[in-house]
């Protein structure tokens, strides 16, 4: 916990030295600073509620942040994997925007984050994997109305798609 406080103080000092506003620094902070006992917390230590909007915001942050680190060959593989997930998981009722379909999209995003964590060498891979695993655990329950908190079973075709997720080839060699 002390390292997080030191890290926050260091980024404030760095931002002041470089003339950045504290708002600019806040924009690059991870949405989930740390996790513990099945809960997520922000940089100030406040409990984060796992709302659909927050989960989507966090996933977009991690997907953009991680995919920006990909080498060109890795980026092509990632784009192929993302297209495979999204194309395979589409069902006729997707056009209606039903809550289950939205939850399926969050599940797919979590799988894509897993793919990126495996592909990109990260110093904090374990921390990030823990955050993503916590989000996946939250998605085992409905996060959209009307039955928030009820167990959620993803469609069989989506589960099969994720079960047969191939490990990413090592594109770093290319």
The helix count comes to 7
Going by helix content, strand content and strand pairing, the class is mainly alpha
Average pLDDT rating: 80
* SSE pattern: HHEEEHHHHH
Q: Give a quick account of the main beta sheet: strands, pairing sense, barrel closure.
A: 3 strands, antiparallel
Radius of gyration using CA atoms only? 18 Å
The number of E-state strands comes to: 3
Overall geometry comes to globular
Which stretches are low in confidence, meaning pLDDT under 50 for 5 or more residues running?
A: 1-26, 92-97
The count of domains is 1
The N- to C-terminal Cα distance equals 39 Å
Strand order of the largest sheet: 1-2-3
Which characteristics define this entry?
single chain; 174 residues; mainly alpha; three-stranded antiparallel beta sheet
How would you summarize what this structure contains?
The protein has 174 residues and is mainly α. The chain has helices spanning 2-18, 22-27, 52-67, 72-89, 99-119, 125-138, 156-163, and strands at residues 34-36, 39-41, 47-48.
Question: Could you explain how this protein is built, in words?
Answer:
The chain has 174 residues and is mostly helical. It has one domain (49-173). Helix content is 57%, strand content 5%. It contains seven helices and three strands. The chain has helices spanning 2-18, 22-27, 52-67, 72-89, 99-119, 125-138, 156-163, and strands at 34-36, 39-41, 47-48. A three-stranded antiparallel β-sheet has the order 1-2-3, covered by helices on one side. A hairpin with a 5-residue loop joins β2 (39-41) and β3 (47-48). α3 (52-67) runs parallel beside α5 and α4 (72-89) packs antiparallel against α5. The longest helix is centred in the middle third of the chain and has 21 residues, at 99-119. The chain is globular, with a radius of gyration of 18 Å. The termini are far apart. Mean pLDDT is 80; it is low at 1-26 and 92-97.
């Amino acid at each position: 916990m002390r390292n997080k406080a030191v890290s926050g103080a260091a980024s404030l000092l760095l931002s002041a030295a470089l003339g950045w506003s504290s708002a600019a620094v806040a924009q690059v902070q991870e949405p989930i600073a740390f996790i513990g006992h099945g809960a997520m917390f922000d940089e100030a230590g406040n409990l984060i509620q796992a709302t659909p909007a927050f989960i989507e915001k966090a996933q977009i942050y991690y997907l953009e942040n991680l995919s920006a680190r990909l080498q060109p060959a890795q980026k092509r593989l990632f784009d192929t994997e993302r297209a495979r997930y999204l194309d395979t998981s589409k069902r006729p009722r997707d056009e209606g925007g039903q809550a289950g379909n939205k939850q399926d999209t969050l599940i797919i995003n979590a799988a894509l984050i897993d793919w990126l964590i495996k592909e990109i060498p990260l110093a904090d891979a374990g921390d990030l994997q823990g955050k993503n695993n916590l989000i996946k655990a939250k998605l085992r329950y409905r996060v959209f109305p009307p039955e928030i908190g009820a167990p959620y079973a993803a469609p069989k075709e989506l589960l099969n798609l994720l079960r047969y997720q191939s490990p990413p080839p090592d594109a770093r060699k290319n």
